[in-house]
Amino acid sequence: MMKRIMIALVAFAFSVTLVGSAFASSGRSDDIERVRNATDVFHDIMATPDKAIPQELLESAKCIAIIPGEKKAAFVVGGNYGKGIATCRTPEGRWSSPLFIAVGGGSVGFQIGGSSTDIVMVFRNNKGLRSLLSDKFKIGADATAAAGPVGRHAAADTDAKMNAEILTYSRSKGLFAGISLDGAVVQADKSGDHAMYGERITRREILNGSVRVPASAEPLLRNIARYAPAERASAR
What we know:
about 240 residues, 8 helices, about 35% helix
């Protein structure tokens, strides 16, 4: 009995260490790599329209967050963690410079193994945008979320999901699908913001378009604008 308790405690400490690593400091080179990875993830997902995020959801999105290669590790007690970026519509309808974020969470279960998972979150209203301006928020508690529909168009039977503030997706081993992320914590990665833009820049300034888009982020924003062009936002 004691041996099992010790194993569980070690496993728990291991998973906490993994989740905590998501919130470690970032440097500028880390930021650039993260943006490039997010660019690859979004491009790959949208390259297959029949198995991608419906374009009408992107056209009406307020913000999009991409967490490339979220890590999962599990041994009795599971954990997940990852770092990514978010971009939001500016008042002019353009996509903002990337805001750096981290996501972490945990699950309890008898599982052994690990995987790398890409996560995409589509924020559908201003409350979702405001949540990104906070230090951290919990999906499902501070912001309602649902597994997002996949395909060229959002099917009629997904109307219930359309009331969610965030639609969430994952891609693992090439399979892209809606997924529930309830319980995951999204937290501002201030060290990432500071490394890219300087310590005096605020998250609000980044997301409202006051901060010039870094060269490393231009391919990502061009790709997003291809599916959610600025003129669609300004017309609303």
